Amino acid sequence: MSKESAPVSFKEQSTQRYEPPYAHPSGAVPPRIPAELIPEHVAIVMDGNGRWANQRGLPRIEGHKAGEPALLDVVAGAIELGVKYVTVYAFSTENWKRSPEEVRFLMGFNKDVLRRQRDQLNRWGVEVRWSGRKPRLWGSVIRELQDAERLTRGNTQCVLTMCINYGGRAELVDGFNRMAEDVAKGRLKPGGISEKTVQKYLYQPDLPDVDLFMRSSGEQRLSNFLPWQSAYAEFVFLDELWPDVDRTTLYKAVETYARRDRRYGAAVDSAAV
Ligand code: IPE
Ligand code: IPE
Ligand code: MG
């Protein structure tokens, strides 16, 4: 077979078809950081939408609406920087405590964001995934998530995991229940459960550990986001409210991350000759 007529592999085809993200309106470009200092996995608590709206005399839902372009721009920045995994907290298992109107809005809004943005994300080569608990989550949101997953499966630029009806403790509890079932069925040996086994029972078992954990709005807490995966993450807390965040905020957080000394419990005696 001649070279010209040789079939192009799926992977080659898919890398060729990706569109580069649009430029930031300010002309900002990503900082030059050596590839080994770029976090592979960035987790983001997109917080502060309600305060952003209320500061402007607007209802909280206007803040959620204003947060949509922030997410898109941050994903664009992640692709530019070479961040391979971005995991965002969009609705927690605790967010059901909010008013029925806000919960209803957030369910519909998450569905709409997925529908509106999936083609753009797909063109950029983003693989969309969902992490969260099924019970209680609107069926229409689950279907939208599954559609986005199907459309973008196999894309290789970046994996964007949307955490919707996600709670870190819920994820572990769900995993422990499935482990217990597997022990009862003889598929898993009691006493043989390791950290690797726990990892396998997470909602998205092949996501690597979180390197950089970011939260906007000045709050400095986990709020039940990825506790297992963030055991050794570097934390960067941002004062900006989520609708004011864009890729330049990510650039700064990644610069801060690149200056951190990750020791993982080891130590170097700098007085040693
Ligand atoms: C984050 O913004 C979005 C969600 C939790 C869905 P908030 O709605 O928590 O905004 P604040 O923290 O009340 O300002
Ligand atoms: C965490 O933010 C959840 C999301 C961003 C989706 P919250 O605003 O719900 O968390 P708390 O109430 O400050 O802990
Ligand atoms: Mg909040």
Automatic annotation (TrEMBL):
Binding site for Mg(2+): 47, 234
Residues annotated to bind substrate: 48-52, 60, 64, 92-94, 96, 98, 215, 221-223
Annotated spans, Disordered: 1-30
Keywords linked to the UniProt accession: Magnesium, Metal-binding, Transferase
This protein's record includes keyword Metal-binding: yes
Co-factor requirement: Mg(2+)
Details of cofactor binding: Binds 2 magnesium ions per subunit.
EC primary class: transferase
InterPro entries reported for this sequence: UPP_synth-like, UPP_synth-like_CS, UPP_synth-like_sf
Record GO terms (molecular function): transferase activity
List of catalytic residues: 47, 95 (proton acceptor)
EC numbers: 2.5.1.-
Family affiliation: Belongs to the UPP synthase family.
SUBUNIT field: Homodimer.
Function: Catalyzes the condensation of isopentenyl diphosphate (IPP) with allylic pyrophosphates generating different type of terpenoids.
Name of protein: Isoprenyl transferase
Naturally occurring in which organism (per UniProt): Arthrobacter horti
